[in-house]
Amino acid sequence: xxxxxxxxxxxxxxxxxxxAKKGSDQxxxxxxxxxxxxxxxxxxxxxxxxxxxxxxxxxIFFRIGSPSTEQGRKDxxxxxxxxxxxxxxxxxxxxxxxxxxxxSFNPSKFKGDDLPVDSVSWNLAQKFIKxxxxxxxxKFRLPTEAEWELAARAGTTTARYWGEEIGENNANCGRCGxxxxxxxxxxxxxxxxxxxYDMLGNLWEWTCSEYKKTYDGIEQKxxxxxxxxxxxxxALNNSAKHVRAANRARSRPAGKLRGYNCGFRLAMDxxx
Length: 272
Ligand SMILES: [Ca+2]
Ligand SMILES: [Ca+2]
Known about the structure:
This protein has helices at residues 2-21, 23-34, 96-102, 122-136, 145-153, and strands at 42-44, 51-55, 60-64, 80-84, 87-90, 204-210, 229-232, 248-251, 262-263, 267-269. The chain is of the alpha+beta class. It folds into two domains: 1-35; 40-269, paralog of FGE (formylglycine-generating enzyme), CATH 3.90.1580.10. It has a four-stranded antiparallel sheet. It has a four-stranded mixed sheet with strand order 8-7-6-9, covered by helices on one side. A two-stranded antiparallel ribbon has the order 3-4. The longest helix is centred in the first third of the chain and has 20 residues, at 2-21. 40% of the residues are buried.
């Protein structure tokens, strides 16, 4: 009994020291446990304050696309699998506060620091990334289409990361029970299991992958000089069928779908 008592005290001291050293990490993990977030590693970029999650935690065999039974499905969503290594992806769409740190003008139709920057063409997103990379010495980029869908699903296989149905007030979209007619401030809705916000709804998000109707592997690559690039996730003015993890849209690099509803989030290779 005496020995086990001493052992308990030693363990408590050891845990206490560990907690003292990693206070902020412990706070993040506690918050993550509360929200069922399984991508524990968080990294902050210091110029913009943008936060990134490491996805996945180890290389995994991953499936994208939708089953033939999914409501609203289109014929360019063929299910297929591949292996994915680790990468970083931003917790939120790029906000106007983050954008204004880097760029001298703001193209957004709806203005506000915590709103995502809207009305962004693929080419304009590249300008932001190039400028941020020069400032930071990092290699930020858009996510590939495959990385985007893996991140959006966060381990789920349903049409949406919160379930099969669009439901009420799960995202900012058209007629889906949310209070926003404009863009919503980022983090207005619950995150997915990877701790990512607004992967569905709010703004369409540009990827660095060229659109091909039939998946041929290009969805796992960043491409220069493509005729059209894939956008994902649906936006504030889209109905339920567009707001699905497997749904795909496309636009020319200089174009903006319906003018204002395009934004983006950043990704970066993991060095591990
Ligand atoms: Ca709405
Ligand atoms: Ca979005």
